[in-house]
Amino acid sequence: MDAMSFLSQYISGKRNFQRANLHQANLSNANLRGVNLSEADLSGADLSKANLSKCNLSRANLTNADLSGANLQGANLSEVNLIGADLIRGNFQEANLSRADLRGANLKFANLLGANLTEAEMSGAILNGANLREANLIGSNIKESEFNDADLTNVIITELEMTEEVLHIGLSHTWITWAGSC
User: Fold this and answer.
1) What angle do CA 109, 115, 120 make, to 5 degrees?
2) Residue 70 needs a FRET pair 20 to 30 A away by CA distance; which of 29, 61, 80, 146 works?
3) What is the DSSP string of 13-24?
4) Residue 159: partners with Cβ closer than 8 Å, 6 or more residues away
5) Cβ partners under 8 Å of residue 162, min gap 6
């Protein structure tokens, strides 16, 4: 499906595009609020500054996609593939990113306030300057991720996620809510 056909159908009221093939589609600045793109192929797509709030992108392939400045507030991104994606200044407030694959993703200055990142694969992700206030990182792999100048106030994390590779950022235990581990 090409971008023009997809946008035309969306404008006419269609919202279910499960498993759609939109590989390398240019959807920058598009208003796609509430769209269902679960299991869709959006690899290499340009979704910069798109409104994807409240959308369903679960299990979608967004490898190397450009979502810089996109609004994904309240979106379902569970088990999504965002390997190498550009997520700079993206709004992921209250988004569900559980089990998402964010390896090597660029989340500089992203808003992840209250986001669910449980069991997310975030190794090598760049989160410099990101807002992770109240985000849930339990079970996530943050090895070799960059958190310079990130706001980690009330982040929910266990000691298991805190490895020597990230301790160098100078986290204060008073900023983090430690989940109990038995």
Assistant:
1) 95
2) 146
3) T--B-TT-B-TT
4) 178, 181
5) 171
Cα separation, 63 vs 162, in Å, equals 26
Q: Cα torsion at 106, 111, 113, 118 (round to 10°)? A: -20
User: Is 175's pLDDT higher than 90?
Assistant: no
Question: What H or E segment, with its residue span, contains residue 167?
Answer: helix 164-167
How far is 162 from 101, CA to CA, in rounded Å?
18
pLDDT tens for residues 31-64?
999 999 999 999 999 999 999 999 999 999 999 9
Kindly state which CATH superfamily the domain 30-182 is placed in. Answer: E3 ubiquitin-protein ligase SopA (2.160.20.80)
The burial of 158, by beta-carbon neighbours within 10 Å (0-12 exposed, 13-18 middle, 19 or more buried), is given as middle
pTM score: 0.86
For 14, residues 6+ apart whose C-beta sits below 8 A from its C-beta are: none
